[in-house]
Specification:
Layout lengths: L3 E4 L2 E10 L1 E2 L2 E7 L2 E5 L2 E3 L6 H13 L5 E13 L6 E12 L10 E3 L7 E7 L13 H4 L8 E6 L2
Parallel strand pairs: 2-8, 7-11
Antiparallel strand pairs: 1-2, 2-6, 3-4, 4-5, 4-10, 7-8, 9-10
Amino acid sequence: MDLTFKTENGIFNYRVCAVILNDDKLLAMKNDKTPYFFLPGGRVSLHESAETALRREIKEELGIAPKKVKPLWLAESFFVEDADKEKFHELCIYYLVDVSETEITEQECFEGLETEHHEVFEWLPVDTLQEQYLYPLFIKDKIHSLPKHFELLTEYEY
């Protein structure tokens, strides 16, 4: 069971995301449900640790096992989703993920493995992120100076 639930006032969501960098590029994805880029990852299941969920999601979406992961941020975000206009309260743990020994670093753009929503992954140059239709918004600035220690962020996007 995913740790997400819907109420009459909005949706609560607990998820994990991968910050994957290679040659000054950030790996982002889109699917047929969303017009914007977002980071790979997904929902955490009940009784599943955040790191286990991250590794599972990377395996499901990209077909790889990350060599090393490091927690960067716990972001509490309040936003209205652009595609379906649902109001969200989300907790997301962002991890720096090392995929340097995998073949995905050799492809500029590629399709994901999950079939529910057609997913496309693309390496976005870090110096163009301000112009990209990309969520979460904070990543556009924070990507330039990754924290040495785990940080708590609160973001209001509405």
